[in-house]
């Protein structure tokens, strides 16, 4: 389900000195005033525009095999990544993972991509994930929940393997309504972000005013990540194939039920004898 996050709204207006006089006092411009003007430019909104950021969040858990102990039977990694494994640093500022209270320092803060952390343990639990965005993106955080699973869901009695992990991932889309011009300018050509086309006459703010310049950030994509071979594919083509396969299964099930119903209707009906016969 897409999450709609509206950008920060700011109201502006002329400030009066309270004297009631029509005359205005001219004051020298200060550095603070210049910063306020830059901030207004950065937070200028694009009406009727939406930016979509597809993300994936989940866990990958490995059984430790002979190295397993009573309290450390699995090693696992929890993460938030781009659905296309691109760098999300242009959108996300930090991610906070809230682990079980039994862990040392259960509140883990990751300030740079890739947004992930690894731990070891023996139990399954809910991990709270809070995503925080850059100032020109949104001042609202996004809170998610993910269940850490260590054992295969299909057959828990089957022997575990140290080579094949348990992978649980969820796909979602973050939708930013009326984004700031600075945010739009920074991600208009970003492969992990879906943005609409604007008129050619549109003038973006000077690059010097951008809060975060994506070209100056260290790449944090997960294409060459050590766990990338286990990442699930959430492309539109794969989703269409899954829907087509599910539709075929439903149609086959309907056909089977119809055949059973036809056989039932074709069987002779035996009347029950009345009392006394």
Could you walk me through the main structural features you see in this protein, from its secondary elements to its overall organization?
The chain is of the alpha+beta class. The chain has a domain at 55-172: YEATS domain (Immunoglobulin-like, Sandwich), CATH 2.60.40. It contains three helices and nine strands; from the N terminus they run βαββββββββαα. β7 and β8 (142-147) form a beta hairpin. The longest helix is centred in the C-terminal third of the chain and has 31 residues, at 236-266. Mean pLDDT is 77; it is low at 6-28 and 207-218.
What is the distance, rounded to the nearest whole angstrom, between the alpha carbons of the first and last residues? 65 Å
Number of separate helices: 3
SSE string: EHEEEEEEEEHH
Mean pLDDT: 77
Inertia-based shape: flat
| Class from secondary-structure proportions | alpha+beta
Named CATH architecture of the domain at 55-172: Sandwich
Fraction of residues in helices? 10-25%
SSE topology:
Elements: E1 3-6, H1 31-42, E2 50-63, E3 74-82, E4 92-98, E5 107-110, E6 115-121, E7 126-133, E8 142-147, E9 166-177, H2 181-187, H3 236-266
Looking at this protein, list some descriptive labels.
nucleus; 277 residues; YEATS_dom; single chain; alpha+beta; transcription regulation; four-stranded antiparallel beta sheet; 18% helix; five-stranded mixed beta sheet
């Amino acid at each position: 389900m897409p999450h709609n996050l509206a950008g920060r709204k700011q109201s502006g207006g002329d400030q009066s000195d309270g004297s009631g006089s029509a005359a205005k006092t001219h004051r020298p411009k200060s550095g603070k005033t210049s910063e306020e003007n830059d901030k207004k430019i950065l937070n200028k909104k694009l009406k009727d525009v939406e930016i979509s950021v597809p993300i994936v969040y989940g866990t990958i858990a490995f059984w430790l095999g002979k190295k397993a102990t009573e309290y450390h039977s699995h090693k696992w990694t929890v993460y938030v990544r781009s659905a296309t494994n691109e760098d999300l640093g242009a959108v996300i500022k930090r991610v906070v993972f809230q682990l079980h209270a039994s862990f040392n320092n259960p509140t883990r803060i990751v300030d740079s991509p890739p947004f992930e952390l690894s731990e070891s343990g023996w139990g399954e639990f809910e991990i709270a994930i809070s995503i925080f965005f850059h100032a020109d993106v949104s001042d609202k955080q996004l809170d998610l929940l993910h269940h850490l699973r260590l054992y295969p869901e299909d057959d828990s009695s089957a022997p575990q393997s140290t080579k094949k992990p348990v992978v649980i991932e969820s796909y979602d889309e973050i939708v930013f309504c009326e984004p700031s011009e600075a945010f739009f300018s920074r991600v208009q050509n970003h492969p992990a972000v879906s943005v609409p086309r604007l008129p050619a006459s549109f003038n973006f703010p000077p690059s010097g005013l951008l809060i975060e310049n994506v070209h100056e950030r260290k790449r944090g994509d997960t294409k060459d990540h050590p766990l990338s071979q286990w990442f699930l594919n959430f492309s539109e083509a794969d989703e269409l194939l899954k829907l087509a396969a599910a539709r075929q299964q439903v149609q086959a099930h309907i056909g089977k039920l119809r055949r059973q119903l036809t056989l039932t209707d074709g069987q002779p009906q035996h009347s029950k004898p009345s009392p006394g016969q």
